[in-house]
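Aim 2 progress update. The chain analyzed this quarter is reproduced below.
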Amino acid sequence: MPSLSRLSAAAGFVDGKLKLGETRCAASRLRFTAWGGSEPEPAIAILMTAVFSQPPHFAYEQSLIADVGLHALARRYERGEGRDDDAVLRDLAVLAHGHAAAVAAGGEFQIPAGGGRWIGSTTLVKDTLVLAVRTFVSG
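Predicted structure tokens:
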């Protein structure tokens, strides 16, 4: 797959099984009802994809890790260290790495990245806990 919007990728062949994994950004929509919004806003979804193959068996899984509202993304460009796209993509990848701990803690979260931190709350999307990222603050 093209590297555009890819946050990370890994591949390996272990015990006769091919394992592929990728974390990628995709277009999404997000609504923060607590902010009084009734209409969904454009957002970036962070998706994790895993593929396992050991012929004749094949398995494919895709999980939503986080939704990052455009407000949060704009604040990261405005307030973070390194304002180029590559720096912002690296900081979006941090959300995937911080997902498990934030979900385990539940509720509000703060995940350090790029000279600041992502702030949001865990939310249930189709029976899965996902990070809903509201903003980015510096310092």
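The mean pLDDT is 90. Helices lie at 70-79, 85-105. These observations will guide the mutagenesis experiments scheduled for the next reporting period.
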